[in-house]
Amino acid sequence: MIFKASSNLTLGILMSVISGKDALRYLESFADRDIQAQICGVDLTARSIERFVSSGSIDLDNSERRVAETEAVQFGGDEWVFLEQGAYLVTFNEIVKVPLDMMAFALPRSSLLRCGATLESAIWDPGYNGRSQSLLVVHNPHGIRIKKNARLMQLVFITMKSAAERAYSGAYQGENI
């Protein structure tokens, strides 16, 4: 992409979106690899869902960070779960491995949005490796039904102009593996 600044100066921001087929190499533990590969990314699927049962704490240097406690929401024998309006933590099936010259971001699938729910996530930094989690927010006052392994979010990989100077090394490195 090339972006132009308002002063007519061209900013050489070179990034490329990786096709879904090519991005498959950066993930493992698929529910259905062929269905999950999209034109511009890879769909992430629901492994588990948890509800929040406490508050969390965020500070500047993470010395006092406390993530909110959760409890599992059980899928029924038919592998469906009904979620009332509210916030939930979703763990995905897929293990993501972001190369040092890439970053990734995710957006909710349009079908999820059309059911009155959305997913929120942070950036997947270069060097991140783990089974990610995201915030599922059910806005629909009538709730939503989700089946185990449902495709909820599309992960998009972008090649950076230059490789990162260091790999992600935060608290969530290697999570849920």
**The level-1 CATH class:** Mainly Beta
Q: What's the N-to-C terminus distance?
A: 35 Å
CATH superfamily, by name, is Deoxyuridine triphosphatase (dUTPase)
What is the structural class? Answer: mainly beta
Share of residues in strands: 35-45%
The name CATH uses for the topology is Deoxyuridine 5'-Triphosphate Nucleotidohydrolase, Chain A
Helical segment count? 3
Largest β sheet strand count, sense and barrel closure: 9 strands, antiparallel
Domain tally? 1
Keywords: Hydrolase, Nucleotide metabolism
Protein name: DeoxyUTP pyrophosphatase
GO biological process, one term: dUTP biosynthetic process
Pfam families: DCD
Write up this protein.
By secondary structure, this protein is mainly beta. Helix content is 7%, strand content 41%. β1 and β2 form a beta hairpin.
Outline the fold blueprint.
Layout: E1 3-4, E2 10-11, E3 16-17, H1 20-23, E4 27-28, H2 33-36, E5 42-52, E6 70-73, E7 80-83, E8 86-97, E9 102-108, H3 110-114, E10 117-120, E11 129-138, E12 144-147, E13 151-159
Antiparallel strand pairs: 1-2, 3-13, 4-8, 5-6, 5-8, 5-13, 7-12, 8-11, 9-13, 10-11
